[in-house]
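BUG-313 | component: ligand-complex export | severity: low

The export step for phosphoric acid mono(formamide)ester jobs runs without errors, but we want the raw record kept on the ticket for reference. Input record follows.
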Amino acid sequence: MNRSLVTIAEHSREKIEYLLEMATEFEKHPNRRILEGKVVATLFFEPSTRTRLSFETAANRLGARVIGFADPKVTSGTKGETLKDTIMMVSNYADIIVMRHYLEGAARYASEVAPVPIVNAGDGANQHPSQTMLDLYSIYKTQGTLENLNIYMVGDLKYGRTVHSLLMAMRHFNPTFHFIAPDELAMPEYYKQYCKEHDIRYVEHKDFDADTISGADILYMTRVQRERFSDLVEYERVKDSYLLKLNMLGKARKNMKILHPLPRVNEIEYSIDETPYAYYFQQAGNGLFARQALICDALGITLDEVKNDKTII
Ligand code: CP
């Protein structure tokens, strides 16, 4: 059985709920020795702060050891070694590989050649399933449910792999999506078609103001990603398209939470950090527990084993 996590679309509702329950167990007790003797490799071919460090913290807090790289320039890829050969080599050393790559489909390819599980930590503009697990966990913690929520996605919906993954995962929970983006960064047709095929309601907006966002349970802000643009003139034109300002929250629902996968560049005014709507830093914190669950699941450790674990420190 291939225990890799390439896309969240492969997970059933039951599997998502199972992983969220496991994350809850890890939030109660994040420090254990349940992965003693295991080696986790983190291969980051693209920059990262949260994803890599939270995966590594997750592994360290569970007693595993961590190997890997944060910058492909220090690897033999610079001498021409292929992704396949790199993956085969690291599989000799590690029990699981967490990989971020700039090419869409790289994680899928790695999962097909690797003898150990691959966890996709982001592949180009395609998918970011571990981010989605922490997003779902954050939504559940703040709303008390994943069902029937109004989720507003704002900013770079074209290249934003986090919104693509979240959209697919939410298909089990009857959401209504609102896509707020300029034409250049609109939600791709592929994902709108996915919504239609799964009976997911969505509305598209260009305006971004207090009235437009007044119905949101979740306001999911995203960064315009300079690194995805081939034309930097186009990037300059759209980069400051949607800035959430404090004075736009006057009509917000009481339960509304602002999420952002981070890093933030110019999408959320700093004054909003102090409001009860801001949840993006706690969201990143939840990544530790969600990723502890994902690593354990990929290594074949069950929820029952986590619940009955006697290695808690
Ligand atoms: N959310 C996210 O993927 O952040 P990093 O790029 O810092 O890992």
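Assignee comment: Attached the raw record above. The two ends are 31 Å apart (CA to CA).
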